[in-house]
């Protein structure tokens, strides 16, 4: 059983990481999915690329398609920015956690 630590929790969702297996769980809106820490960092970079695509649409137009394995999310550019904020904060918290727990 996983022993999760909350990396970030805000009004839009949360990101947790298991202290034992390093699996990350991401909740955003009504979506919940998990991935490895390596895939989490790849996913963060994927979101940054999607940010450029979002500039072509209206702020509240459901047009950004995010693929995660066999699942797909459809977000507005506004929601995408909120999602990126959640993922960026979790990524920073994860880096801090790794630095503090490195053996000297």
Give an account of the 3D structure.
- By secondary structure, the protein is of the alpha+beta class.
- The chain has a single domain (4-100), classed as Transcriptional Co-activator pc4, Chain A (Roll), CATH 2.30.31.
- 40% of the residues lie in helices and 32% in strands.
- It has 2 helices and 6 strands.
- It has helices at residues 37-54, 77-100; strands at 4-10, 13-18, 24-28, 31-35, 64-68, 71-75.
- Helix 1 runs antiparallel to helix 2 (77-100).
Give the secondary structure arrangement, pairings included.
Layout: E1 4-10, E2 13-18, E3 24-28, E4 31-35, H1 37-54, E5 64-68, E6 71-75, H2 77-100
Antiparallel strand pairs: 1-2, 2-3, 3-4, 5-6
Pfam family, one: DUF6686
InterPro entries: DUF6686 (IPR046508)
């Amino acid at each position: 059983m996983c022993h999760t630590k909350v990396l970030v929790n805000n009004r839009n969702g949360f990101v947790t990481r298991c202290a034992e297996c390093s699996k990350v769980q991401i909740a955003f809106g009504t979506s919940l999915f998990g991935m490895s820490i390596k895939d989490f960092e790849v996913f963060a970079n994927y979101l940054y690329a999607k940010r450029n695509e979002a500039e072509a649409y209206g702020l509240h137009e459901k047009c950004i398609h995010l693929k995660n394995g066999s699942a797909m999310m459809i977000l507005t550019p506004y929601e995408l920015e909120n999602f990126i904020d959640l993922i960026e904060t979790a990524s920073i918290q994860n880096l801090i956690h790794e630095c503090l727990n490195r053996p000297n």
